[in-house]
Amino acid sequence: MNMNKFDPMKDIQKKRRFKYGAFAVTLTAAVIALVVVINAIFTALCVKNGWFIDMTERDLYTPDPNAMELLEQYRGSEEFNVEFIFCMPEDKLIKSELCNMVHNIVKRYDEEYDFISVRYVDINQNPQILDDYLLTTSATPKQTSVIVNNGVNAIVYSINSFFVSSDGTTDSIYAINADQKIVSAVMRLSGENPVAHFVTGHGESVDNTALRVLFEDAGYQVKEIDLTEKDIDPDAKVVVINNPKTDFWGGNQAVNEIKKLDSFLDGSAALMVFLDETADELPILEDFLSDWGVKFERQSVRDTSSGVPGTDGQVIYAKYSDSSIASPITSSLKDSSRPLKPVITNCRPITLLYDDTVGKYFSNNGATRYATSVLVTSSNAVGRPLEGGEPVKGVKNVLTLTVQDKMKDNVKQQSFLLAGGTNAFSDSQYINGSSYANKDILYNAMKIFSKKEVPVGITAKVFSDDTLTITAEEANRWTAICTVLLPAIVAGVGIFVYARRRYL
């Protein structure tokens, strides 16, 4: 017969378990509530005070060291201040992924430099608030725009201009270039900006080109010019001729464009000329360029050994020349611990015409001109004549520099001609790619042309960088290693082990 006996000790233990269990649950709930409250308070303080730790793999929100070095010259300036104006309230701004990324980076610079400040305006509610900032620009800001203002002049950037995309859409964005844009904006607003003329009237590539944006980011005022209608601006430092389709006017024609270019280069100035393999013969322009020691050959260059894999030698990794004359453009790049590779495509070779006895020089009217190579191909490159004929194998010049030294009023003046055998050298995929040297080569050239600091060395931060910069020859070598050498090593080890086991 089973009888339930009253056990006072068990009853006490049950009450204790309930009591301690209830206390544990209450304590846990209280701790969770406290953590939530502390987190909410700390988050609010972070948003209000801009507390931020960059924990991204590629330090997306950490100011670029090269950018900071360029901005040091403005630190402590009492007369120079730059304001970054976001055109929407901050609470809306942080809900937009792209806008908030740019906002976070600008805030880091705001914290670091006393001359940089951040402001928020709601242009939908108060469009008239921007009137004072937009007197010097014709751009129409949107809510996603960023206005950079120094109290006198203003620049309007679209939010997309702070990013790099493969086709210009937000869906194809793969990197952020905010560091460069921030430095560029500061430098553009810091003083007088040299003028860069892009020549029009001959079918040139001008509008919305990466080369044009590059000049703007370097602090130049970019102006288009038709030399048949206007004279070159006295403040111009650089004139760009980008792959013209028709020839220039010269000689006894109504307007002599060549004479204007010649007069321009008689002072401290620079001319950039890019002609790719598709360009027709331009006898008047090419005759003028021959006076500067360069001849664009009627050939197309292919280099399967130094080409990008899968391009049949059309897209080529060029090599830096050893020329001391070109060293201001190339030395910082080729002497780097991890030198970037310049890329060329659709290229035609350039022949240097000056006598090679003393560094390719020639004197004319008191001026001394030196023509030299900047970038060359490998010795395996082949020049294929466009009109038919036997291919010519050997090293090809693909980017050249001519320097003219002249004494004028007892002052030494230098002028330059940078000639490229491709207009694709400044394509956005090569300019914006963090693995290529094209952008820094052009920036270094701009720096010596205008004697002005430019935002060189600041690369876009790629969200996920899987770019390969190996040549076809290197790819073939690694393929051979992986498919032949490694299996041979494994087979050899297997045979050795088999032989040893057999005779044990």
Profile the largest sheet: 9 strands, mixed
Could you name the ranges where pLDDT drops below 50 across 5 or more consecutive residues? 50-55
The number of strands is: 23
Based on CA atoms alone, the radius of gyration comes out at 32 Å
CATH topology label of the largest domain: Rossmann fold
Short structural summary:
The chain has 504 residues and is an alpha+beta fold.
Plain-language structure description:
Helix content is 32%, strand content 22%. The protein is of the alpha+beta class and 504 residues long. It has three domains: 32-191, Glutaredoxin, CATH 3.40.30; 193-462, Class I glutamine amidotransferase (GATase) domain (Rossmann fold); 471-504. The strands form six sheets. Strands 7, 8, 9, 10, 14, 17, 18, 21 and 22 form a nine-stranded mixed β-sheet that branches. It has a four-stranded mixed β-sheet with strand order 2-1-3-4, covered by helices on one side. Strands 5-6-23 form a three-stranded antiparallel β-sheet, with no helix packed on it. Helix 2 (65-71) packs parallel to helix 5 and helix 9 (327-334) runs antiparallel to helix 11. The longest helix has 42 residues, at 8-49.
Describe the secondary structure blueprint for this structure.
Layout: H1 8-49, H2 65-71, E1 82-86, H3 90-93, H4 97-112, E2 116-120, E3 146-149, E4 154-157, E5 163-165, E6 173-176, H5 178-188, E7 195-199, H6 210-217, E8 221-225, E9 236-242, H7 257-264, E10 270-274, H8 283-290, E11 294-296, E12 299-302, E13 315-317, E14 319-320, H9 327-334, E15 343-345, E16 350-352, E17 361-364, E18 367-376, E19 382-385, E20 392-393, E21 397-408, E22 411-420, H10 428-431, H11 438-450, E23 461-462, H12 472-502
Parallel strand pairs: 1-2, 7-8, 7-9, 9-10, 10-22
Antiparallel strand pairs: 1-3, 3-4, 5-6, 6-23, 11-16, 12-19, 13-15, 14-18, 17-18, 18-21, 19-20, 21-22
Helix pairs in contact: 2-5, 9-11
